[in-house]
């Protein structure tokens, strides 16, 4: 500091000037030190990058060596082929030589030709020809030719395409018949016999030619003759045996054997209402028909449809969709075409699956029909020329006067400052020189982004990048959007250049600099500043400023500043400008993403998926078509995937990929059932997405104690419960352990139109709202967010209020909070003899919502808008927040495991058990959490936990499910045999020699065997052996919550079924089975509603496994589409939709014959 004061005094500065000088010098010193520190950091970073670059160079060297080995191998193969070609051509030459010698020997002397045939329509004098040179005289040609005589000539003379010949339609009209000259004598044709083989490689047959060898030429063929001789290529048609094999008797036989049509045959002939039409079934001439009548169908006349048995359904769909007259139309038109003559149960679902799995339809779908994935935000670059985008334009026609055909463009990401250089060619060396020329003006960037052009990814360019310490980034194949900054500038440059050089098109290279000035001078929409301002910190003097000065004569008085002051102020201005530009870029980026994502769909692929890729056609790289299918190998980015394309792998963006739906083979599989008499007409309990009931209804009397406890132990437990009476309450508490946060992908508020609330329900709704306001669960809101409220009836006719958070969930960032695996949970229970089960009372409602996220939970009612202060049901991350709170509360505590809001206390002794209970409830008290008394069991050795039975420290399966499978009825038809083998086949790893054991059964499913099987001793032995082995060995795998669950559901007229599975060894393996008979009311549901009921009931049955995790729902119908699109016409559908919002699932549609297990269970 003293040094600066002395230096200021030496410069003659005083007072304020001296103070400002010292302050500026001090700031300059601080900045210098900061720059020095920055340089040191950059040097360390450069060293790290150099090490990384060295590793990359070593990898590139290895790849080069591999490519060199491949090239050597390819050259060796070419050499082998060349030698093979030499041998073939030498053999051919020798064969021709031999044939010529034979012809020469046969025609040593001239011979007269007999039985001559006329080719010309005019009289001519034809001489006797010999092999060799002959003189001919015809209207088409006169002169000496090399001729050959045939053994059996078709004409006297054939004139081919030889020099001097006239066109067939233009003969010589002045020609007069003359005498032909004698043919020349022939010479020995053998001098070429010793010709070197290397001469054969110069050309084709012309190389095998001797001095006097006859020249063989083709005869002239007219266009009319060629058109007449042209053959018509037959069209490819679908190879279907629907009409070739099946006759009337076969149809009757298949209908009678099909169990899916039995109920229609036995149904009495009476009309049933189907919408606005009527339907009944009848048998006419032994053929089963469905008779449908509607005022707008078939002119109001009855339409008789043949009921198609299962073996023929696929053939009917092939004719209706795949055939040459099917037209590959959509689902609706294909269904309408089939229903004009045929019908079967599940027709629409079968046609939907068939059309969606059509290979041709999938590969010809328009590109716009495949939705794009959401736009990802690029990192904002705040330092000029840290990252630049590069791309070539061309080939430009016409070329410039100096021969330029290309333009290399460069755009800076931070300032949007463009550069453009005209080039005569775009090889690597030329591009590298142009880049070095640009870098000499703007500096060397840290990163460059280019496409996969050979000039950018060549070894020479890699070496340039290494020498200049440039990190090279590339776009994915056929995805120029990744380099959109320079692509957009290229479009502007081409459009403007076309306008400027319209009168002198070959002078376009001279307009580039003027065009760049015009682009740099105007403000950019995304930054709000011109590139010149962000680059130089000032507005450049351009045409507008010059015109203004000429008009006003006002040039302005320049401000006099010293160098230091100018540099210092310029730096501050540049920093402020760049900061404002950065903020403008962020806003522009958010706005662009918002509009782009309106129709985007978050499509994800997993390794092993089959996909189609949008690639250029084989004939035109500008035309794109779907090709494939190919297999996804790995996920390499948010939207980038490595796909195996032929013999190599490439990285493609998700917008170029489309999931390929494979058409499954025809198969029918079923499984045994687990029947439960419970009904699902209404839901009850806190599982629904309701606002809640905060009145206390349960107490200590509802807590269950173990039946084997002694009186002293029971007394100690009662004393323990008395000490924590306030914890045993069904009214939820409020903890401070964790807060529920809602992170959204968009800042645009989500608003939904409120659903109409019935007038009779508004009073109870208002009462519930008032109670929750008093309890502090909700509060009045002025939030811009708004989710609708639905009021549904419970079993007791009271109303339940539910909030529909579907739109908020769609833009919520998924919380990846890990879930404990079942293996870890059960491992900790080893050796435990006493277990207590504790269940939190409405665990969700005991967690508050983060203050800044409370507005996102707002919901609208007829009396106003409110927002949740406690974590509501229905938000996608509610379960993860609850799990995080449980983890914090139980951190470091032994002998306690938890799964969501279920806790197990497990010990070996009662004293230790009681001590652990007290520690647990002390923590519950500290966290202000309550437990539900009716769901608590204390001091027992037998509890159900996560769907398993725990008894005396041992884990066992729910054997009643296995018993149902073992007690399944003996198969009587081919369909039932396939179903039994399909189900047992999942357990083949537990059954030695499974294929040999089941061979008598699998033989009965062959084509040609009767549908009604002939059961014999061999089949009975195989059936009993499989059942016996299954009963002795475990047949259900323990659930691994680290893997994805698969839920299959199905419904029939009599019941619904569900099967929970996981993949082991690449195959789905059953975890648990469940089924339920339909009640009388449920049997009246439509087919689609029954399918929806099966899904909801199956998810509710296995909720412990599926809550809070992603899982796959496989069903042989599309009921979720119905749930999402149907109007809320009844309370039942509303409850189902609200309930499913708690779960994160992916739906897969499978054919009914592939729905192993669930169909059997239903």
TrEMBL record:
The keyword Oxidoreductase does not apply. CDD domains: RNase_HI_RT_Ty3 (cd09274), RT_LTR (cd01647). Residues 29-75, 166-189 are annotated as: Disordered. GO terms for biological process: DNA integration; proteolysis. InterPro entries: DNA/RNA_pol_sf, Integrase_cat-core, Integrase_H2C2, Retrovirus_Pol_polyprotein, Rev_trsase/Diguanyl_cyclase, RNaseH-like_sf, RNaseH_sf, RT_dom. One of its GO terms (molecular function) is nucleic acid binding. Residues 30-75, 166-175 have a biased composition (Basic and acidic residues). The keyword Nucleotidyltransferase applies. Keywords: Endonuclease, Hydrolase, Nuclease, Nucleotidyltransferase, Protease, RNA-directed DNA polymerase, Transferase. Residues 380-539 form the Integrase catalytic domain. Residues 773-950 form the Reverse transcriptase domain. PANTHER family: PROTEIN CBG26694 (PTHR37984), PROTEIN NYNRIN-LIKE (PTHR37984:SF5). This is Reverse transcriptase. The lineage of its organism: Eukaryota, Metazoa, Spiralia, Lophotrochozoa, Mollusca.
